[in-house]
Amino acid sequence: MAAVDTAYVEVLGRHIDPDGAATYRDLIATHQLTADDVPGILIESPEYLLGRSGFYHLLHASRTNWCSQLPAWDRILDIGGSSPTHELGALLELGYPHHPSELHILDRPEDDQFHGRPIYDQRIVRKREWGTVTFHHGDAGILDAVPDLGGRRFDAVFMGQVIEHIPTHELPGMLAQIRSHLVDRGAFVFDTPNRSMTKLIMGEAFLSGDHTHEYDPEEMVSIVSRHGFTVEKVVGIHHMPTTRSLGVFDPKESAHSPDGAPADECFCFAVHCRAD
To answer: Domain span at residue 25?
Structure first.
């Protein structure tokens, strides 16, 4: 077991956890594997493929590249757009190149945010020469009940890696709320992991325990189209055609997606749509 723990440190950068120790102890005791097999097993694990291989750094670069090409919107609502460290929110942190006159960010209360409590005070409205950034806390499914959001309408609603966290039974209500808070023909743009890819790593599980459902592009387009939106385009993010064709996940494949890369061959995809 000392050799197994060494493998954990060398491959995953941490010591073995109690559940892992119990599993490997039983497998070695029953001669189903040896300690020498463990490094190879760990290198194929989701924890290594996603967290230790540098994959998320490459994926972030691809998402930043996509975000840099988004159009300019004047009044934006970013749902789930808090950043733990960037006081102007995740959209600008991700590289959105334009300066809206109003950026409103809706997220959970500060003590309950997905990436931890922010290091700055979200009660303060950030004023810049180009506009303001205002944080709100509440439920995206009932925007009308969020103080200071009920009567507002936006040129665009943005969601970065959020829709997969929304319980499926709550999604229709949230989409209706988003539509009602957009101006005529207002934009709704979001990105999300591609289930066709994530299942190659995770099997029946999801990338995060906080995900309630992961979508493939066809399923996602069908849902938003049924709930009052016209899909203008679907953009692939982080092209991985070899992984898709072989069915074997290679964390080192690709960096940026070429224009027009099929969304089904990308690790993530973005849906750009308009309110009908």
So the answer is: 2-43
Give this prediction's pTM. 0.90
Sign of CA dihedral 117, 120, 125, 128: negative
The pLDDT assigned to 19 comes to: 86
The dihedral formed by the CA atoms of 65, 66, 69 and 70, expressed in degrees to the nearest 10: -140
Same domain, 122 and 235: yes
Q: What is the mean pLDDT of the chain?
A: 93
State how far the Cα of 51 lies from the Cα of 59, in Å rounded to an integer.
11
CB 122 within 8 A of CB 109: no
| 237 touches 190 (CB < 8 A) | no
Do 106 and 150 lie in a common domain?
yes
* pLDDT tens profile 226-246: 999 999 999 999 999 999 999
Residue in 163, 164, 185, 159 with CA at minimum distance from that of residue 275: 185
Considering the domain architecture, whether residues 146 and 246 belong to the same structural domain is answered as yes
User: In angstroms, what CA-CA distances link 224 with 120, 167, 173?
Assistant: 34, 15, 12
Q: State the angle between helix axes of 2-12 and 18-29 in degrees (0 to 180), rounded to the nearest 10.
A: 130
CB–CB of 259/207 below 8 Å?
no
121 located within any domain: yes
In what side-by-side order are the strands of the sheet with 266-275?
A: 126-128, 131-137, 102-107, 75-79, 154-160, 182-193, 266-275, 229-239
How far is it, in rounded angstroms, from Cα 228 to Cα 44?
A: 42
pLDDT of 254 reads 73
Q: Are residues 78 and 165 in the same domain?
A: yes
Whether residue 256 is predicted with pLDDT greater than 70 in this model: the reply is no
The tally of domains found in the chain comes to 2
Is 224 part of a structural domain of the chain? yes
Specify if 263 maps to a domain. yes
Same domain for 116 and 252, yes or no, is yes
